[in-house]
Amino acid sequence: MYPPLSSKAAHDEVAVDCAIFALHLAGVSSLRGAVNITTTVTCFCQRRTSMMKHNVYIWSILVTMALLLVSLPVLARRITMLIIDRNFRSVFFVPDGGGDPIMFQHLF
Fold this sequence. Notes:
Helix content is 70%, strand content 0%. It is an all-alpha fold. The protein is elongated and about 60 Å long. It contains 4 helices and no strands.
């Protein structure tokens, strides 16, 4: 997925576009799962017990879901910029047009 290697000049096939779309689907499903688990734990805590009475496993799941909710939109933005570079000839990561391929690593 590194921009110089995933450009149309390096790979002109549809396989890279399919891989980018698959990453988008994986991100969307992870976000939906994170929201689902967070909502389930929160609703369960409000009705029966307090948050402080849960074990370490529930807390670790909540921390993992919070990290997913924070990090996945940033990764989706990076992947969207890459697909726009490939198909609509923008220059986010193209050095010839003023873009920066190292920005891909900074966003990742």
